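Lecture notes, continued. The same structure-token format from the folding unit now serves as the input rather than the output. Read the line below as a description of shape only.
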């Protein structure tokens, strides 16, 4: 999570230096930031997602499909019950993970334009194009990570972003994660993390 927040912050600072541009709200499906549960639930179910359970902090978990593969979307709400982030996890078979990541990356690029930040890095003995990319990802010797952030980054009420990456989960499995967040997620994340400890 810290890597995600650092990447989004870095991208925001870079884009702020580029000057203002037309803001594009980065959101999941047709959900609006700040929507309450009574608005978000029917919107998501109309798109074929099925509510599965209530999670910690009052978040709502839905099951569906993305790119033809099982997916889980967790809608994250703040204390006032307003939608502030969506954590989407797609779990294709390992031999499809790269194709699904690329498909989702292409779709997000088509929707939001070129990413603010992208990384595809491999540590020895692996390298991109060697046919062992999935093995590298499973052994955490590779990073696939792309971030989109509003170019209107100085307008805090409009700022939002999306991060897409590949994660290793227990038992050596891989998933594609798309984390969509509003500007209000930072405050909610800090609330959930609890008070910061001071170092003396």
């Amino acid at each position: 999570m810290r890597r995600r927040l650092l990447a989004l912050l870095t991208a925001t600072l870079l884009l702020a230096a580029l000057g203002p541009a037309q803001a594009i709200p980065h959101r999941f499906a047709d959900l609006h930031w700040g929507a309450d549960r009574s608005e978000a639930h029917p919107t998501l179910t109309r798109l074929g997602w099925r509510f599965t359970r209530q999670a910690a902090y009052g978040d709502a978990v839905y099951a569906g499909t993305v790119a033809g593969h099982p997916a889980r979307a967790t809608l994250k709400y703040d204390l006032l019950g307003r939608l502030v982030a969506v954590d989407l996890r797609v779990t294709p078979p390992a031999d499809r993970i790269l194709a699904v990541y690329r498909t989702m990356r292409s779709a997000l690029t088509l929707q939001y334009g070129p990413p603010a930040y992208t990384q595809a890095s491999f540590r020895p003995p692996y390298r991109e194009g060697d046919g062992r990319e999935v093995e590298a990802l499973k052994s955490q010797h590779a990073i696939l990570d792309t971030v989109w952030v509003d170019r209107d980054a100085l307008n805090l009420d409009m700022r939002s972003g999306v991060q897409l990456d590949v994660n290793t989960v227990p038992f050596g499995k891989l998933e594609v994660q798309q984390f969509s967040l509003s500007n209000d997620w930072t405050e909610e994340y800090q609330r959930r993390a609890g008070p910061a400890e001071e170092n003396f």
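Point for the exam: The first helix runs from residue 2 to 16.
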